[in-house]
Write a structure and sequence with these properties.
With about 230 residues, the protein is an alpha/beta fold. It has helices spanning about 1-30, 105-115, 135-145, 160-170, 210-230; strands at about 70-75, 80, 90-95, 125-130, 155, 190-195, 200-205. Helix content is about 35%, strand content about 15%.
């Protein structure tokens, strides 16, 4: 009787071991990484950033809110227009080189995006100076060198103040004080990063001071890239 109990015990142990090995084999497989919140990103067309879920071929997109034409200059003295971003996804923010507060951290986090997509020609970055009267091309170049900015990936731009502020407030919607009327002379200061697709539509807004938000932005860029690939 004892030998039969031992045999059953041995069989049970073998089954348990095989089960563990099978489960281990499944667990050891490389997981498919998918940190995106959704399979497709929403669209945004106003400062409240209420998401709108639209199909890629939706008729509404023909007249949907988009970043308009613009004409600025980067750290190398090159003209930067909406044409510089043709067939590109890009991330935009607003800063100034003499900022002692949030801008250095924002720049560090934008640098994380530069590193994450350094070999990806599909993604560009643009940082608009909100003190263009002080941030001349030489000042931007000095800042770019100090911060390790790659000119082929990341444009630090200056130009007409009215144009930059109009872009920030009325098109990128970067300020958070919704509903408060701003005068032309009021200073624009924001930590927000904005994700723009290849048709110059807004597809996301992120806290440029928050590392978790930056990681989400990186994931959302990959989602947008996949979305773009599927529409080709």
């Amino acid at each position: 009787m004892n030998w039969m109990m031992k045999l059953h015990s041995l069989k049970g142990n073998r089954i348990a071991i095989l089960t563990c090995l099978l489960l281990g084999a499944v667990a050891c497989k490389e997981p498919v990484k998918n940190d995106s919140r959704v399979a497709q990103l929403p669209y945004y067309d106003n400062p409240s950033f209420t998401p709108q879920w639209l199909a890629d071929d939706a008729a509404a997109l023909e007249s949907f809110h988009a970043i308009p034409t613009f004409n600025l200059v980067n750290q190398d003295g090159q003209a930067i227009t909406e044409g510089s971003f043709t067939n590109k996804i890009y991330v935009a923010d607003f800063f100034f080189t003499s900022c002692p507060g949030i801008c250095p951290k924002m720049t560090d986090n934008m640098a994380l995006l530069q590193e994450a997509f350094k070999d990806d020609d599909e993604l560009l970055l643009i940082s608009h100076s909100v003190t263009p009267n002080r941030d001349s091309v030489p000042e931007l170049k000095k800042y770019a060198i100090a911060k390790g900015v790659s000119s082929d990936k990341w444009h630090l731009v200056t130009g007409d103040r009215a144009q930059i502020y109009d872009l920030g407030r009325n098109y990128y919607f970067v300020e958070e004080d919704l509903g408060i009327e701003k005068e032309a002379e009021d200073f624009l200061h924001t930590e927000n990063f904005v994700l723009i697709d290849k048709n110059r539509h807004i597809r996301g807004i992120y806290n440029g001071l928050n590392k978790t938000a930056i990681q989400q932005l990186i994931s959302d860029i990959h989602t947008l890239k996949q979305e773009s690939a599927e529409t080709l």
